[in-house]
């Protein structure tokens, strides 16, 4: 079977037994270095994607995808807004809410809190709080009974549990014969939730919408309407469509605006980590330079004979590009296979390592995400493989060019 000369000789140089075994060793090290670098890059990016996805799901389990509000005065015709947006395209749920701030006290403990008034039957449509209940359920919030559901960390800081009484101190003041006093109201703890985000577990408290309206003097107004979409990544597009469809005076925002700094920081961290780990692949790839330079030195007589027989400098250059490229291809493929296998089985490999060394990488009492999540994306795998191959091919250019410039007479002078 016919094969081009450059490919045939390049492959022969790769698989033949060399006189200098040190060159073979360096070639093997370069190949393994590329494989380890690619595998590490795929695994780390998959884990960071997993963390980003987990954090996004936890945050959006509490925060709505899209919010419709009407400024500080509150939303008056919230029922009409719900009827208008609930049937909109991509919207799968809507629920009113009242947002306020206050302080909770119990005995000598005091903690600042974010109060959210909700309708338990509608809240299930826009958040995952119903599935995050540790004790009790959302239905335990009944209008007029002034029950309250606290985040687990908030309850721990106050030292309360189910059935205990807490006092809510609101910023609104009441004028009394003895002067202006803050408004106080006693609530009964009827449930605890844990979403896995300290920001919410330590500060968020849920009460019934009617109790919140009475306490904060909202009458029949609410702070806004929260929406849930079938695809959270469509939030900016849906928000723009609703802003055009609703009458003037309404403000529509989405989750990407509310947490833009947080997700921007996560994305920047992932980019920096990608660059740092890519340097590992680059170091391994450029080890090919030393490997091929030694190979050119070792094969100078062969190169001279080929040139004497009429082989062009371009063909000589292509021979060593084929040899270096083969090392890069094998190393990259091994790294991609290993990285994909490790990323898809990280939930099995990490517990095995922890059990073997009797340690925990992410202690549950310190980190809210105590398991290493993984979200492997084939786009990342292909991009990493392409970059690794490109670096390997670039690394072969100088040795191959040096081989092409070798003069036959100079190479054979001392033979």
Explain briefly what this protein structure is.
The protein is of the alpha+beta class. It contains 15 helices and ten strands.
Topology (SSEs and partners):
Elements: H1 5-15, H2 21-60, E1 66-69, H3 78-86, E2 91-106, E3 109-118, H4 120-123, E4 133-135, E5 147-151, H5 152-158, E6 165-176, E7 179-193, H6 198-201, E8 204-208, H7 209-215, E9 224-229, H8 235-245, E10 251-254, H9 255-258, H10 260-298, H11 300-308, H12 313-344, H13 346-357, H14 378-404, H15 408-412
Kindly list the characteristics that best describe this protein.
6-stranded mixed beta barrel, elongated, alpha+beta, 2 domains, 415 residues, single chain
Report on this model:
The protein is of the alpha+beta class. It has helices spanning 5-15, 21-60, 78-86, 120-123, 152-158, 198-201, 209-215, 235-245, 255-258, 260-298, 300-308, 313-344, 346-357, 378-404, 408-412; strands at 66-69, 91-106, 109-118, 133-135, 147-151, 165-176, 179-193, 204-208, 224-229, 251-254. The protein has a six-stranded mixed barrel with strand order 2-3-8-5-7-6. A hairpin with a 2-residue loop joins strand 2 (91-106) and strand 3.
- Uncertain residue segments: none
The count of β-strands is: 10
Supply the number of structural domains.
2
Largest sheet: 6 strands, mixed, barrel
Distance between the termini: 34 Å
CA radius of gyration: 33 Å
Report the β-strand fraction as a percent range.
15-25%
Strand arrangement across the biggest beta sheet: 2-3-8-5-7-6
Which structural class fits the helix and strand makeup? alpha+beta
What is the mean pLDDT?
82
Number of contiguous helices: 15
Principal-axis shape: elongated
Portion of residues within helices: 40-55%
Order of helices and strands: HHEHEEHEEHEEHEHEHEHHHHHHH
């Amino acid at each position: 079977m016919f094969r081009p000369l450059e490919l045939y000789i390049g492959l022969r140089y790769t698989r033949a037994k060399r006189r200098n075994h040190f060159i073979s060793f360096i070639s093997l090290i370069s190949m393994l270095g590329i494989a380890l670098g690619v595998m590490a890059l795929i695994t780390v990016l998959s884990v960071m994607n997993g963390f980003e996805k987990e954090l996004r799901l936890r945050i959006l389990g509490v925060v709505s995808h899209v919010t419709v509000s009407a400024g500080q005065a509150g939303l008056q015709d919230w029922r009409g807004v719900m009827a208008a947006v609930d049937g909109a395209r991509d919207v799968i749920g809507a629920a009113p809410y009242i947002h306020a701030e206050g302080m909770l006290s119990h005995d000598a403990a005091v903690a600042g809190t974010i109060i959210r008034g909700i309708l338990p039957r509608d809240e299930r449509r826009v958040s995952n709080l119903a599935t995050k209940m540790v004790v009790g359920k959302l239905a335990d919030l009944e209008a007029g009974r002034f029950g309250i559901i606290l985040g687990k960390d908030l309850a721990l800081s106050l030292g309360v549990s189910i059935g205990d009484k807490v006092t809510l101190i609101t910023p609104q003041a009441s004028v009394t014969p003895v002067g202006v006093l803050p408004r106080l109201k006693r609530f009964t703890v009827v449930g605890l939730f844990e979403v896995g985000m300290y920001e919410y577990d330590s500060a968020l408290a849920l009460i019934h919408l009617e109790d919140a309206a009475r306490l904060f003097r909202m009458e029949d107004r609410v702070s806004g309407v929260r929406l849930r979409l079938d695809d959270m990544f469509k939030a900016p597009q849906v928000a723009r469509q609703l802003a055009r469809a609703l009458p003037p005076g309404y403000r529509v925002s989405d989750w990407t605006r509310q947490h833009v700094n947080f997700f921007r920081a996560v994305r920047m961290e992932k980019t920096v980590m990608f660059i740092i780990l890519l340097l590992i692949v680059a170091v391994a790839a450029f080890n090919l330079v030393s490997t091929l330079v030694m190979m050119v030195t070792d094969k100078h007589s062969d190169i001279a004979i080929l040139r004497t027989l009429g082989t062009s400098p371009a063909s000589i250059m292509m021979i060593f590009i084929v040899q270096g490229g083969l090392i890069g291809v094998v190393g990259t493929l091994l790294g991609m296979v290993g990285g994909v296998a490790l990323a898809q089985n990280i939930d099995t490999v990490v517990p095995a390592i922890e059990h073997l060394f009797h340690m925990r990488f992410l202690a549950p009492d310190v980190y809210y995400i105590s398991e290493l999540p993984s979200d492997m994306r084939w786009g990342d795998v292909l991009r990493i493989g392409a970059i690794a191959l490109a670096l390997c091919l670039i690394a072969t250019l100088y040795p191959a060019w040096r081989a092409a410039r070798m003069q036959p007479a100079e190479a054979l002078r001392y033979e």
